[in-house]
Amino acid sequence: MIIGGFAAQAQAQSNVTIYGLVDAGLVSERGGAAGSVTKVTSGIGGQSRLGFRGTEDLGGGLSAIFQLETGLKVDDGALDNTNSALFNRLSYVGLKSKEAGCLTIGRQYTMLYNAMSQVADPFGAGYAGSIKNLFPTAGANTRTSNALVYVTPTMEGFSAEALYSLGEQAGSATAGRQFGLGLNYAQGPLNARLVYNNRNNDTAAVGSTPAKLQDTGRNTLFAINYDFQVAKAYFAYGADKGVNSAALPVANAYGYAVAPKASLDSNDLLIGVSVPVAPAGTVLASYTRKNDKTSFNQDADQWAVGYLYALSKRTSTYVAYAKIKNKNGAGYTVGNNNEAGSGNKAFNIGVRHSF
After folding, report:
1. How far apart are CA 343 and CA 323, in angstroms?
2. Do 49 and 70 contact (CB within 8 A), yes or no?
3. CA dihedral of residues 130, 131, 137, 142 (deg, nearest 10)
4. Which in 6, 7, 188, 217 has the greatest CB count within 10 A?
5. Of 226, 249, 349, which is closest to residue 302 (Cα–Cα)?
């Protein structure tokens, strides 16, 4: 839905778009301490959401832009957050110019997560085969608040972007801050991104509680895909170092006597493919590996397959399956876009509609 109009004084054209995604299906999980889990859940391929985005033409190639987006659960109608934030997914305002680029302020995606979901993963960070099962997307690696993001104009397929998120902790200018850098290329069948994310894990002193100083979390990712028409190939390689650089999605899903350790030094690898099949289907497949380089050597491998069928431009059905092999006490789980999962195997079947 688009609501259009003209500003009374500036006579600048503006519009607001209401959009959303409704995704729900059946999930069956096996192998975890919780045993066999079968449930109806929301956001399997992509989190169900309701959003508003708008632009106002300010003249001279300059526009004001904003976006507000909240997550919701189709299975029970609840908001998809635990902190009562209304627009927990996205909340920003900014200015965009064809010549000068785009600057936005507020709660936004990191370029690390955008590279994973938009370029690296044939599953688009959703379904059982999600890249999120082994690659580091927990917490502020996906979205960060109080952020300023600048994106350059695109020249010959190249663009660059930078993010700076203020920690906003009293008494410290650095505690909790985050910054990222990205170099992008998209032209013809080739799409590639090289990104870096740095997260300060310090906490400032509060009253009698002293400050806590920790190592930073540092993530570097190269992601690329190439469309051969008969198939699209995907590749991603990441390096994760420091505290919270590769946080575990679930603390101890398998009930081990000794809980798994979040790696402080690891590499990630993904190789994938999507193949269009007549008349309106797409086959997805990927292999993902977590290589823990610490002394614990808690590696994991994931194999995943899926099938999407487009009933229309806005509605599709899907089925997906993935299995993880954990090594040396690793505790990774097969989840989906909205949930971390409970075991080492999962099957999804569902439907999604966008508007």
Report:
1. 9
2. yes
3. -70
4. 217
5. 249
Could you check whether the bond before residue 276 is cis, i.e. omega within 30 degrees of 0?
no
Q: Is 187 exposed, middle or buried (0-12, 13-18, 19+ CB in 10 A)?
A: exposed
Quickly name the fold that domain 2-354 has.
Answer: Porin (2.40.160)
Tally of CB atoms within 10 A around 68: 18
Contacting residues for 245 by C-beta, under 8 A, at least 6 apart? 136, 199, 217, 218, 219, 263, 264, 266
73 with 42: CB under 8 angstroms?
yes
Domain residue extents for the chain: 2-354
pLDDT in tens, the chain (355 residues): 555 543 344 445 789 999 999 999 999 999 999 999 999 999 999 999 999 999 999 999 999 999 999 999 999 999 988 777 899 999 999 999 999 999 999 999 999 999 999 999 999 999 999 999 999 999 899 999 999 999 999 999 999 999 999 999 999 999 999 999 999 999 999 999 999 999 999 999 999 999 999 999 999 999 999 999 999 999 999 999 999 999 999 999 999 999 999 999 999 999 999 999 999 999 999 999 999 999 999 999 999 999 999 999 999 999 999 999 999 999 999 999 999 999 999 999 999 999 9
Alpha-carbon torsion angle 132, 134, 138, 141, nearest 10: -80
DSSP state of 299: -
**Cβ atoms within 10 A of the Cβ of 155, count?**
8
